[in-house]
Write a structure and sequence with these properties.
Radius of gyration: 13 Å
Helix content: 25-40%
Order of helices and strands: HHEEEH
Strand content: 15-25%
Largest sheet: 3 strands, antiparallel
C-alpha cells in the first residue's frame, strides 16, 4: 500500500474509535475485525503502554512498516499521527 492509503486507513480507524462509547473499549480484536472488514491484514496489532513521562495504554497498529498509536484513554486534543509522518516532521525541523 502507498503511504497516503495507509494514512487513510489509520484515520478511518481513528474515526471509528471515536464513535465508541469509551476509548477503553478499544481492543486488539476490534481493530483486527475492522481491518478484516476492509480486507486488510496488519503486520501487527498490540496493546501496550507508551509515553516518555506518563504511560498511557494504547493499541499500536503496524501496516506495511508504518505505525499508528490509538490511545485507550481520553485526552483533550489528542490526535493520531503515524510514526512515518512524525519522522518526516523531525527531518524538516532538523534542516
Amino acid at each position: 500500500m502507498k503511504q497516503h492509503e495507509i494514512e487513510s486507513v489509520f484515520l478511518s480507524l481513528w474515526q471509528r474509535t471515536l464513535n465508541l462509547p469509551s476509548l477503553s473499549e478499544l481492543t486488539v480484536e476490534l481493530i483486527t475485525s475492522w481491518l478484516e472488514q476492509k480486507h486488510l491484514t496488519a503486520t501487527s496489532v498490540e496493546e501496550t503502554e507508551v509515553g516518555a513521562f506518563e504511560k498511557i495504554k494504547c493499541i499500536i497498529l503496524t501496516l506495511d512498516n508504518q505505525k499508528a498509536c490509538f490511545p485507550k484513554v481520553s485526552t483533550t486534543g489528542i490526535q493520531i499521527i503515524s510514526a512515518t509522518l512524525m519522522d518526516e516532521w523531525r527531518e524538516v525541523a532538523n534542516c
